[in-house]
């Protein structure tokens, strides 16, 4: 039988990043938290917390934290079904923290509304782990999140996959930028000499779009800008061209503040909702909210996606 006081101590340290903050959160002393974590580590024969600034959960520790998350979801569901649910004094109501993997562009366009509705309805807290859609499945594999929006259709072990649709991207820039850098029109060589915008080292959207248009990737000078909204602002300011989600730039395109580098060449990125089966029933309401939001904001996926 697992020691749930020790499990909650491990989860609190991983969540807050320190033994002191975890102690404050749990209402005990830092020494008590340290003893609980150490006792569980000795019993399991594994390091669960890497001590540092901040303290971080190991892979085994992360799996235990997700177990605490699942238990919290089950307890919350049970309490709702009791004929006389317990009453909590101010500040004592237990809160379940859900870890969800999400790509920055989904968070900036369509995902926040269903997540917020779910949080308001249930009282659960959400910690977003932001990564490229091609890499969020790795967070599931490592036990660091309970669910994720991912480009991967292949189910992570123990997870259920729900197709969502495709987030449409458009290669956009300001009219002034196009006039300055592409006065003779767009071809592969001209694009290779034109400054682009790249979110981070994992971002391959510009290369994928160029391969789709020219049959090969085109590598050129780039600005590094890890912000979905910043991408749009940088394009408006004439800093570079970028692959922007259509929901973020449609009004700018309609008003002429931005233009497509080449008309009718969207890049559709398929997205899927992968959720740990152990949490699937407790999070069914969130899944339905996400499906409704995706239906209104994403485009249908191609049959091959």
From TrEMBL:
Q: Does the keyword Ubl conjugation apply?
A: no
Q: Which domain of life is it from?
A: Bacteria
Picking any one GO molecular function of the record gives: DNA-binding transcription factor activity
Q: Does the keyword Ligase apply?
A: no
Q: Which residues form the HTH lysR-type domain?
A: 2-58
Q: Which UniProt keywords apply?
A: DNA-binding, Transcription, Transcription regulation
Database matches in Gene3D superfamilies: 3.40.190.290, Winged helix-like DNA-binding domain superfamily/Winged helix DNA-binding domain (1.10.10.10)
Q: Which NCBIfam families match?
A: argP, PRK03635.1, PRK13348.1
> Which family does this protein fall into?
Belongs to the LysR transcriptional regulatory family.
What is this protein's record name? Chromosome replication initiation inhibitor protein
